[in-house]
Amino acid sequence: MMSEEKKIDLLDLVVILIKKKYLLLAVGFITAVIGYLSIYFFIDEEFESTAVVVPYDAGKGAAGMSSLLKNLSGLPIGGLASLGGGSSNLDLYLTIIYSRSTLTSVIDKFEMRKEYEEKYFSDVLKRMKEDIGVVNEDDLSLSVTVRNKNPEKAAKMANFIVEILNQKVYDINVKKAKDNRAFIEKRYNEVLVDLKTAEDAMLKFQQVNGVFEAEQQVKATIEALSNLEVELARKQVELETLTFAMGNPEAPAVKNLRASVDALKKKVDDIKSGRENSSVLISMGTLPAKAIDFFRHYRDVKINSEMMEFLLPMYEQAKYDEQRDTPVILTIDKALASDKKVYPPRMIYTILISVFSVGLISFFLILDHLIRNATDPKIKYLFRNILSLKEKQV
Fold first, then answer.
1. What digits encode the pLDDT tens for the residues 203-215?
2. Pair 113, 156 in one domain
3. Which residue range is the domain that position 236 belongs to?
């Protein structure tokens, strides 16, 4: 019975609304007209203009540096080859666009304080930020959209923001290139000094010790000493044989042969002791130390020469990057004045206003029906007191 009473009550309500259908239709039509006209005359239209940009030259200098490092992969500095990096600069662009300095420049140029009519500048900044939209298109491009009541003004603002973005990114890249050039130049000059010092030290060592090509000179010294010792051994055998054969140690032939043996001995001793005046042969007594010292000097010259070959192209690239004056942001689509508004959606707002008005009138019609036909004394008492309270207030 209770569910049946509820159904009857619901049907009664539907009947009430149907009886008042002309009133509801009139309310819906009137509020729709009033709402549409109110939106048309009292809410300003807003238009959007969009500029599409892509990073044109960002990171090119770093890419050039990376290629130089890869070409020098034989050096023990492989970690530097990743300096070029492949990370996108789009996050940097977002930071620049929404920075206080950029927003302030746009506000001042286009007199947005007058348009926004805000008391505090922080509120002006907030409104300006809300009117700018930035969309990252698959990490390849950036869309900068500006909303304004004037379509031409919106287009000019979007293009102006792109100009600011390009200039600030350019300034950042120039600063980085300048710092990079200064660092490489300092290291390059240090290597120049180290290379000259190493070359002078090696030249002095060669002049003092007579070691010019350690490997070849060591080989020549050992071969010369071996040949002399073989010749000395042969002469000693001949001397012993001749002395025994002649039976007279003072014979002229024996003396001559003994003199040859003594000369060979002296030659061998001179080579071993370093008294040999040859510019090619090295003293056997100092052979290991001189060879090691030579290779140490040679290593210092070699290392600094390799560093010079490594730094010179980097230095030239850094100087080029510092002096380069090319755009870093390429504008694919410049912002143009739009002839289609994006706000307000008049039809949607009109429908919402009309539906709300009809619903509100329907609510009061149903409420009036419930008050008139209420049988519960509590409900009657409640509504009677609410109405009396209203009357007293009036």
1. 887 777 665 555 5
2. yes
3. 206-309
Q: Which distant-in-sequence residues (6+ apart) come within 8 Å of 192 by Cβ?
A: 308
Q: Are residues 392 and 55 in contact, defined by beta-carbon separation less than 8 angstroms?
A: no
Ramachandran angles phi, psi of 131, nearest 5°: -85, 0
Q: Which two tokens stand for residue 381?
A: 């008492």
pLDDT in tens, 270-293: 766 655 555 445 454 445 566 667
Q: How many domains does the chain have?
A: 3
Q: Is residue 317 part of a domain?
A: no
158 HSE (CA, 13 A, CB side)? 31
Distances (CA, A) of 202 to 110, 167, 198, 256, 298: 70, 51, 6, 45, 7
Residue 89's region, left for phi above 0, alpha for psi from -120 to 50, else beta, is alpha
- Whether 218 is covered by a domain: the verdict is yes
| Count of CB atoms situated within 10 Å of the CB of 69 | 21
The sign one gets for the Cα dihedral 11, 12, 15, 17 is negative
Strands 141-148 and 46-55: antiparallel
